[in-house]
Amino acid sequence: MRYDSLDSFLKTGGVAVAKGPVAVVFAEDEVELDTTLRHHRHMGFASVICFGSDRWAMPADLDGKVHRVDYDMRADDAVPRAMNALIEIAPSVWFYYCYNAEFLFFPFCETRAVGEMLAFHAEERRSAMLTYVVDLYAGDLNRWPNAVSLDDAHLDRSGYYALARLDAENHNHPKERQLDFFGGLRWRYEEHVPAERRKIDRIGMFRARPGLQLREDHTLSDEEMNTYACPWHNNLTAAIASFRTAKALKRNPGSTFDIQTFKWHNSMPFEWHSRQLLDLGLMEPGQWF
To answer: Could you report the per-residue pLDDT of 149-159, keeping only the tens digit for each?
Structure first.
């Protein structure tokens, strides 16, 4: 199940988006790509689609189990362009998207499938879910110079905050039930991160519908789908544990020599379990118990 371009996939890959939920992984490089794909297959997605370079080999155990699309990820609009094309051909399907070296966690994901979670979310008349991108980083950069290690993964236990999301089209009044969230490595090393990329919130899961568009800032064209909760009570949220920022900070010549370690007094080992993220307040179950 390999396609030589996005256009080829759109013409012949309908089986991959015939039933949801669908996980879409955008591979910027090969770092932990195989574990990213395996992780999301184990989450219970109906199918997993991987966009990435045609030069990378697919692990033997995933060959035939992942829909692979040869795709150039270097363009700034690579992700929204691909996702908006998928939205157009698969209205009503639930999509989740992430990058390689990113791992989805939702409340009780160790014992419940992603389809169960989204079914409950839909019953609450929600068609999108806020996800927090929680930065992971290797504890020992001498041993793991690219800052990526599953066995030595750490995260920040505090330092997260939210600011009102201002509406430029309404005299900069705060948008209802929308916030910009910050924290993690993008906050601690903000001098190395462009201002427009410092947020850690992403509408990472949503139900496609005609005319819907994913924007470059990881929000959707329907403002209600960008809200963190409905007007009546709190809703489910999820977390994406991500090495992406740490990897970029160590790869970038402008920042790599300034960082000898990402660890600080608020670092703690990542336990690879949803309970830890719930306890830290980095996602919440809403009314789902």
So the answer is: 999 999 999 99
For tokens 């909760």, what's the residue? 229
* Token duo for residue 132: 């927090």
Phi–psi pair at 76, nearest 5 degrees: -60, -30
Task: State mean pLDDT over 65-93.
Answer: 94
Predicted TM-score (pTM) of this structure: 0.96
| DSSP one-letter code for 209 | -
Enclosing H/E stretch for 8: helix 6-12
In degrees, to the nearest 5, what angle opens at C-alpha 84 toward C-alphas 78 and 89?
Answer: 130
Which residues, in sequence order, are bridge partners of residue 161?
182
Q: What are the strands of the beta sheet with 137-138, ordered from one edge?
A: 137-138, 153-156, 267-269
Residue 236 in contact with residue 286, Cβ under 8 Å?
A: yes
For residue 168, what are the CA distances in angstroms to 162, 165, 196, 202? Answer: 18, 9, 15, 20
The residue behind tokens 């155990």 is 61
* DSSP annotation string for 71-86: ----STTHHHHHHHHH
